[in-house]
Design goal:
single chain; 8-stranded parallel beta sheet; alpha/beta; TIM Barrel; 8 strands; 45% helix
Length: 312
């Protein structure tokens, strides 16, 4: 059974490679998994935001989990996203994923309707108790619109089957308060979801990061983690600056927006440049044009020049 102490470092939230008819491209999945393993990451997260989870049918989710588990073959801990506003779908996915080799499930708060903190605690508690594998909480209030309070997170952290938190709140003061409250415990891990806060978070007690940019530059993210974990502030600062300077690539295709086609499309476009997968995304996201890719490369070419990514 996976435990919190098994999880540290960088856990890429993998993209979902697609064929022309929006099925899973298993050959590309295999290339991606080898790419991540070779980069020295600490785990794999399938069916998160970067994986276009909300766009997928249950059938496609099962297909993707099966492809990732088959390609990884136990080389890394595998976390699978079961996020849904439906309790029945979430717990069904937990059982299906466990049968396919997932080591822990990941879930945000249920979205669309608003819920009280008591209801959210009940949601995660029941999910942890009825899932055949442990639960990792994904706090992303900007997408789920149901923020968890610090007290709720700390209460849930005491549950023996809830092993960690991905903090995508972007609120570093709040996050450091959680990290301080967890100091000295090895039964619950906290991971940073924001690219720009990675080094700061590790220096202050986070156990790792789950960054979308790890889809294109996992070695760089891993290097930031290792420098910060070792307390090498100059090196961590230097490497973090590379991530900070590249970060606008997420928005280069659709400036001034947070459109999914721009963000997810940017990751897939750069992965295409690296020979890992194509740039297709789920409808209704548009497929990025060559002009979009040129705008993205303004920010990612410096990473290639520095040797952190390799174009084919």
């Amino acid at each position: 059974m996976l435990s919190a102490s098994d999880l540290k470092g960088i856990i890429p939230p993998t993209t979902t490679p697609l064929t022309s008819d929006e099925t899973i491209c298993r050959e590309s999945v295999a290339r991606l998994m080898d790419f991540f393993v070779d980069a020295g990451v600490g785990g794999m997260f399938v069916l998160g935001s970067s994986g276009e989870c909300p766009c997928m049918t249950v059938e496609r989710k099962l297909e993707m989990v099966d492809a990732v588990a088959d390609s990884l073959a136990g080389r890394l801990p595998l976390l699978g996203g079961v996020t849904s506003p439906s309790w029945a779908i979430s717990i069904s996915l937990a059982h299906e994923f466990a049968e396919r080799g997932v080591d822990a499930i990941v879930a945000t708060t249920p979205y669309y309707f608003h819920y009280s903190q008591c209801e959210l605690k009940n949601w995660f508690t029941r999910l942890a108790e009825e899932s055949p594998v442990p639960l990792f909480i994904y706090d992303i209030p900007g997408r789920s619109d149901n923020p968890l309070t610090v007290d709720t997170i700390l209460t849930l952290s005491e549950h023996e089957r809830i092993i960690g938190l991905k903090d995508s709140s972007g609120d570093i003061e709040r996050g450091l308060g959680i990290a301080d409250a967890l100091d000295g415990r090895d039964d619950f891990s906290i991971f940073q979801g924001s690219e720009r806060l990675l080094a700061t978070s590790i220096l202050q007690g986070y156990h790792g990061g789950v960054q979308g940019i790890a889809n294109i530059a996992p070695r760089l993210c891993n290097a930031v983690y290792e420098a910060a974990a070792a307390g090498d502030l100059p090196e961590a600062r230097k490497l973090q600056r590379l991530i900070h300077n590249a970060f606008p690539y997420f928005f280069a295709a659709d400036p001034g927006t947070t459109n999914a086609s721009g963000i997810v499309g940017a990751m897939k476009a750069v992965q295409e440049l690296q020979g890992l997968c194509n740039r297709r995304t789920f409808f209704p996201m548009r497929t990025l044009t060559d002009d979009d890719v040129a705008a993205i490369r303004v920010y990612t070419d410096p990473l290639a020049e520095a040797g952190w990514i390799t174009y084919v």
